[in-house]
Amino acid sequence: MVYKKENMTTSVRSNLKGGEGDISFINFADCTDFKNCRLLSQMTIPVGGSIGEHTHINESEYYIITEGTGMAVDNGVEKAVEKGDLVVTAHGESHKLVNTGDIPMKVIAIIITY
């Protein structure tokens, strides 16, 4: 199956999970097409923006940083992240992501349910 860019939906969510700013989404596909998929998107986090700290239950989330730099809070521990890094948050774990750089941060986000 091929999903064409012109058919992908976009959305904006403000203060996502208690974070700061407007997070833009390009939704690559409707996850109802895939077993155990809840999210398959590119997120753009503006300079100074963030996704608030939250916990995943019965699912895992993967962030692949494709542009920019920032700080991830991984189960309470701050870690610098940059282009090419992967952040993995499994069942029962928490995370937060902040764009600390000077350009918008782009992140591929995938949530897989159990």
UniProtKB/TrEMBL annotation:
- Fetch the PANTHER family from UniProt: LIGAND BINDING DOMAIN PROTEIN, PUTATIVE (AFU_ORTHOLOGUE AFUA_6G14370)-RELATED, QUERCETIN 2,3-DIOXYGENASE-RELATED
Q: Which domain of life is it from?
A: Bacteria
Please state every residue range assigned to the domain named Cupin type-2.
43-110
InterPro entries registered for this protein in UniProt = Cupin_2, Flavonoid_dioxygenase-like, RmlC-like_jellyroll, RmlC_Cupin_sf
Write down the Pfam families for this protein, in alphabetical order: Cupin_2
The protein's name: Cupin domain-containing protein
